[in-house]
Amino acid sequence: MKRRRAEGDADAVANGLRHTKKARPSPRLPRQHQEVRRQLPVFQHRDNIVTAVKTHRTVVLVGETGSGKSTQIPQYLYDAGLASKHKGSSGNGTLSPRTICCTQPRRVAAITVAKRVAEEMGSELGHTCGYSVRFDDQTSPSTRVKYVTDGVLLREAMADPMLKSYSVLILDEAHERSLQTDILFGLVRKLQDKRPNDLRDAAQLRIPGRTHPVQVYYAEESQPDYVDAALMTCLQIHAEEAPGDVLVFLPGREDIDNLALLLRDWLAKLHREALQEAAAVGAVVAETPSAAAAQLQEGLVVKVFAALPQEQQLLAFTPAPPNTRKFVLATNIAETSITISGVRYVIDCGLVKQRSVVAGAGMEALKVVPVSKSQAQQRAGRAGREAPGACYRIYTESTFLALAQSTPPEIERVDLSQVVLQLKVIGIDKVDQFDFVSPPSPTALIAALESLYLLGTLDAAGDLTPHGRRIAQLPLAPTFSHLLLASAEPAFECTAEVLAAVSCLSADNVFFTPTDQEERACATASHRAFASADGDLPCLAGIFEAYKANMHKGQGGVWCKQHYLNARSLARALDIRSQLATILRRLGGDPESSCGAEVQRLLRCIAKGLSLQVAVRQPAVSVAVGGQSSARCYRTVRGGKEVYLHPTSCLFGKNPPPRCLVYAEVLQTSKQYMKCVTAVDPAWLTELAPQVFRKQSAATAPAAANSCAPRLK
């Protein structure tokens, strides 16, 4: 936790977010949950925390899970006057507002914690207490306690490296070692050196948690299908154990959706059978013993993962109705960042989805990998937050003992292009000399510089180009910012289409998959009608434009229901488009510029924008590989890695398969799958991205050029 003195007025955030509330007096609301606040372990340490922050530049606070640190410490500092107005150094006597900022690695944590704190402070959300995450800003000029994702604060530092609008910076969940939090530590240390004061250097405090014993159970043998094993464990708990909610940890959204579908069907079937059996013997649900009658409870299945719309995420935090057991299916987002009340049972599949660089391939992939021991222990601890609980690990004890002790920091395994670009914008030219918590390898930094150079954001000397400064103003990955800016070029003029596709990618999955099997078949047929022969990006653009047209007729929701599309996701995409359009106008672009029926302009633009993410089809052989003919096997131009079309792509099954593709991301499970692909003519690549590809004969696909990447400096 870092403290520094505020100075001057708050600068505008550089991520295109807009304030959703105008400045007006914060309405007086009753302060809620006050008795609960006094019972939290952190309450006994309140005075020590405030004193330490007031007298030290840096306070390292180690708080156990369940201590209340994330919700309470910003309030203690606010009540102690550390967010009051302060005379700036401009010399004109102007009083500048000061804000207490608390970062979170994940957007759902920033949102849910801010909502809880607003209730406790008696504030309407967005007034005294608010949050700011990518594409969603619930703050106002009167906000004094602000929860943000670490990525948003890093973008704010691009506009104001001194972070003058904050009096206290709390870098929460630092043990997770997210990439942005690690970078923020280095920036804040640099900031403290520039803002000397008479405070002592550092203090350390420890706050115990409030935990109960958790009984851990292991599988007797390895489970070939962890989704099926999780389903059986859920049903066993529901039939045999006392009331209490169940938290299930799964790697990703696809597993969560599959388990939710199966679990809802089984719970409904078992509940009907239990009621029929109870009725036959004259049993009364309300009078039966808790453990013996657990099967008479209804089951409520809810999901929690990062891309889920906010309204659906909040269902996990709502208490289950009477006589109902809640099953929360979650990714690792529920390990530490959020607290879900009522959980007595945890089911841990022992896997997590991690983003990491594919060595030598110049690309990132989402990989499903084993958790670390510390992650497994965090997961188990979630069952003992409020009462004794149980954790069911659907892997063997020998598997647990073989796990790594901790998870490697993100900075050691992900692409660094975006943070290198941000550091350059902030003014840190010698990125290899930056004060990293854990320095990345020179290889990783050089790869990031090479990618930025190939995108035209850096020159050969490693300095920012005008194109690089424009890219940095968009709250997107550099590749997609490059694509969006390319769409405004006279040769393409397809900004409306690219903006629509990128907005859909930034929202949740726009396709809705029903639980009923017959309805699923109807949904599949309906989705197939939107498929584009050119690929997934044109498909998303078409869906978005059709949705927008029906919205103007007042029929958006009905149209989505008819075509099995996620209305919430498309509404979010529409809002994201509006915010990106505002930034594009500021950069001189026209968001309404369209290529119309000239689809080739759009495809050529996509080829240029995603020129670092190209794969070429490999010659077919007679042997089938993993259920797909090897004719569907592709090889990335950069790095030469074998990749396959994801089954959800509208180009999956096309015969013959496209010769050359660009892709949005790679997902690694048993194989590496390209997601959101678009077919392009390989001859375009040497024309549109000569710095990436060298020219070859028309009969062959282009090869990666030998780039002259800027050197570390």
UniProtKB/TrEMBL annotation:
EC number of this enzyme: 3.6.4.13
Ranges where the record places region Disordered: 1-35
Catalysed transformations (reactions): ATP + H2O = ADP + phosphate + H(+)
Keyword field contains Ligase: no
Source organism of the structure: Tribonema minus
Entries under Pfam families matching the protein: AAA_22, HA2_C, Helicase_C, OB_NTP_bind, WHD_HA2
GO molecular function, one term: double-stranded RNA binding
InterPro entries listed in its UniProt record: AAA_22, DEAD-box_helicase_OB_fold, DNA/RNA_helicase_DEAH_CS, HA2_WH, Helicase-assoc_dom, Helicase_ATP-bd, Helicase_C-like, P-loop_NTPase
Family to which the UniProt record says this protein belongs: Belongs to the DEAD box helicase family. DEAH subfamily.
Domain Helicase C-terminal: 226-427
GO cellular component terms attached to this protein's record: nucleolus
Protein name per Swiss-Prot or TrEMBL: RNA helicase
GO biological process: positive regulation of transcription by RNA polymerase I
